[in-house]
Design brief:
By secondary structure, the chain is mainly beta. It contains eight helices and 61 strands. The protein folds into five domains: 153 residues, Mannose-Binding Protein A, subunit A (Mannose-Binding Protein A, Chain A, Roll), CATH 3.10.100.10; 78 residues, Sandwich (Immunoglobulin-like); 142 residues; 179 residues, no CATH class; 78 residues, no CATH class. β58 and β59 form a beta hairpin. It is flat.
Length: 728
């Protein structure tokens, strides 16, 4: 199958599939995976025929297996039967052989059953007979494709009756967890297929058997138990085993549990580091509501599931980058690395891991639940990397707080290379170098608050950085993203887009910066140095206001076209220089109180009024002047600058003086200006020893930064630069 279509055609096709087959494709119905001799026959109420799957095989082998079942590869007569098959057997990545071939006459596709049904549901552009593709397969979208005979996948078998088939075991239990002792009722849900079941043999995992159809069983000892059931009819027997099915907790255990893959003590009860569990899933399974699981450094090759439990699962030091880098959860391409049930609340947290090597349909790194129910868990201080999904290579369906993560080098075969459909708070993340085949290289369909993120180097078809985020998009740096079609920086957003810096993005067709945001409110944004053949920074977008846009001639209140004057474009630092025309040139945004670095907005940075007079800056950065002592605005403190403040201390006070480089002078006098930044506790027009010592701290650190959380509004070095870590 050669389906590498033009991206526009691909998106259109997926939109059609979603609309026409939404319940099956979006809901992700649980497919029937039991195959071969253990196949579960499912009856279609529309035609009363029975269907099952063979073992994976080539098309001729699958047909032979179908004969052995007393049937043949399926004939699909109409759209209703096609939809029923998709809903019943479909699932992410599922491909099934059906009984359609043109092996006898090229281009003449016939049903091997001899049925003359004319219904066809080929994928657009198929069948194309690339490389003797003479056999039809049923895809996970419900469309069909012509495929090579060498492909190995299950065959879909159809027959008129299920008589003579073995029984198929199924059972349920409730409750499946609790504090010892736990009484569990097991319920037989097996299908006998016409021959009555006369024997039930239960193995509850604790050495006590059961022989009733629906027994009660009491678990006395804490542990994780495997349960199995064997049923027998005149035709034969079937057994089903559910590993780690019943969890019985110790009433005295917790609230902290320990996991260390390096534990070789031979004891794994999770209560101490010396007796730590060796898998994270053990910790999750044994922890009670509200408990904390602490994970030692190491590589844990597993796919963990929270299962609706409100727990804290964290590394030993979530804010230490070295610990995060060495505490790895590797999904081994066996599904999402981390799966939430979708019912977790905001008291649940995952923090301090490198999450990698997942592969699934929704959320290769982290899947937040289901299409109908998204988790509210907090996901913080993680590196989510090198995972793949159809939607959301990094994350999908996470509606809680996604903050302070690095989301990088993930891939989406459909949409959302970094994140997909995460509708909560997306804050202070670095979202970089992700890829998608279609829409949203960085962020896709996230309709909550997308705030203060660095979104760089992502690629896709539409919206390299951000696609169709209809909530609030603010304070983000969107730089160096690229697309094959339109909207290098952002595409399709319909909400409030304000105070973003959108620079250096590219599109091969339209709107190197922003495209197709006709319904958005665009305000206080820098849109600059973006490239596309049409030369437009904005394409099919709402008329912006109070924005700085290169070569803009489209009108709108308060827009400017002067270069924004960034600190260091080559070095990736997009803070504003002191002389930037964007300082104070924005419009009022009452709810916007901080910039991308967490510094307060607005700050009066110019002597003359600009913009609407509210002093909001344009772009993600709110320029603030350096410390009063830093007369050369270098964001470092020199000995000569310290000596200057020492004179104020020695004089017993200082005054305003517009004729000096720093605007101050020793001794008493006029005090109509703003006090010196070293005079902060209290602001009394004198300099104390502690205040002078604070300045020396900045000197010793080699620099300082703004920090609204400190009494003086500054802190030693450590500035989170827009695109590059520099002191500021």
């Amino acid at each position: 199958m050669q389906t590498r279509m033009h991206p526009l055609d691909a998106c259109a096709v997926f939109a059609i599939v979603t609309c026409l087959l939404g319940s099956a494709v979006q809901a992700g119905a649980e497919p029937y995976q039991r195959v071969g001799d253990d196949a579960e026959w499912v009856q279609n109420p529309a035609n009363d025929h029975f269907y099952a799957l063979t073992e994976p095989a080539t098309w001729p082998e699958a047909r032979d297996l179908a004969f052995g079942f007393g049937g043949d590869l399926a004939t699909i007569n109409d759209a209703e039967e096609n939809a029923w098959i998709l809903d019943t057997f479909g699932g992410p990545g599922i491909k099934l052989w059906i009984g359609l071939t043109d092996q006898e006459e090229e281009g003449n596709w016939v049903w091997i059953s001899g049925d003359d049904a004319a219904y066809r549901n080929w994928w657009p552009g198929e069948p194309n007979d690339i490389g003797t593709e003479d056999w039809a397969e049923f895809l996970d979208t419900g469309f069909w494709n012509d495929a090579l005979v060498t492909y190995v996948q299950p065959g879909l078998v159809e027959k008129d009756t299920a008589e003579g088939s073995l029984p198929v075991v199924s059972f349920a239990a409730s409750p499946r967890s609790g504090v010892a002792p736990v009484t569990v009722q097991f319920v037989d849900e097996s299908n006998p297929y016409g021959s009555p079941i006369f024997s039930w043999e239960w193995d509850f995992g604790d050495g006590v058997p059961g022989f009733d159809q629906n027994p009660f069983h009491v678990y006395e000892i804490p542990g994780l138990y495997t349960a199995s059931l064997t049923v027998t009819t005149e035709i034969g027997s079937d057994t089903k085993t559910e590993p780690d099915y019943i969890l019985v907790r110790d009433p005295d255990a917790g609230p902290e549990w320990y996991v260390d893959i390096g534990n070789t003590s031979g004891v794994e009860d999770g209560t101490t580091w010396e007796t730590a569990f060796t898998t994270i899933q053990q910790g999750i399974d044994f922890a009670g509501e509200g408990h904390t699981i602490i994970v030692a450094e190491g590589t844990y090759v597993e796919n963990i599931e929270f299962r609706g439990r409100n727990l804290t699962v964290r590394s030993a030091a979530p804010t230490d980058p070295a610990v995060v880098a060495h505490t790895v959860i590797d999904g081994n391409q066996q599904g999402p690395v981390v799966t939430f049930a979708g019912t977790e609340t905001d008291t649940c947290m995952l923090s301090g891991f490198t999450i990698t090597n997942g592969d699934t349909r929704w959320g290769g790194g982290i899947c937040g639940g289901t299409d109908e129910s998204h988790s509210l868990a907090r996901i913080q201080h993680n590196t989510i990397t090198r995972s793949e999904g159809y939607y959301g290579g990094g994350l999908a369906w996470c509606d809680g707080q996604v903050l302070d993560n690095t989301i990088t080098d993930n891939r989406a075969r459909g949409d959302g290379g970094g994140l997909s459909e995460c509708d909560g708070l997306i804050l202070r993340n670095t979202i970089t170098d992700n890829w998608t085949e279609n829409c949203g290289g960085g962020v896709y369909l996230c309709d909550g608050l997308v705030d203060s993120n660095i979104v760089t180097g992502n690629t896709g078809g539409w919206g390299g950085g951000i696609y169709r985020c209809d909530g609030v998009v603010q304070n983000n740096l969107v730089a160096g993203n690229s697309v094959d079609v339109m909207g290098g920086g952002a595409c399709g957003c319909r909400g409030l887009v304000w105070n973003n810096t959108i620079v250096g993005n590219s599109a091969t067709r339209h709107g190197g910066g922003v495209s197709s945001c006709e319904s958005a409110t665009i305000m206080n944004c820098i849109v600059w140095a973006n490239e596309s053949p049409d030369g437009l920074q904005l394409h099919d977008a709402a008329i912006p206001s109070f924005s700085c846009i290169q070569n803009w001639t489209g009108g709108g209140e308060g827009n400017i076209t002067d270069a924004p004057l960034f600190v260091d474009v080559e070095g990736g630092d997009y803070h504003l220089q002191p002389g930037s025309p964007c300082i104070d040139a924005g419009g009022r945004g009452e709810s916007l109180t901080n910039d991308i670095d967490g510094a307060p907005r607005p700050v009066d940075g110019t002597p003359e009024p600009r913009g609407d007079g509210s002093d909001y800056d344009i772009g993600a950065d709110e320029f603030a002047p350096p410390h009063s002592a830093d007369t050369d605005a270098s964001w470092t403190i020199e000995l000569t600058e310290i000596s200057r403040v020492v004179t104020f201390y020695s004089a017993g006070g200082y005054r305003c003086d517009s004729m000096t480089p720093d605007g101050f002078a020793p001794f008493d006098g006029p005090r109509e200006c703003r006090p010196h930044d070293s005079d902060y506790t209290p602001r009394d027009w004198t300099i104390s020893i502690p205040e002078l010592s604070r300045l020396i701290t900045f000197y010793n650190a080699g620099g300082y930064r703004r920090d609204p959380a400190t009494p003086d509004g500054f802190a030693p070095q450590g500035w989170r630069a827009l695109g590059a870590p520099i002191a500021r």
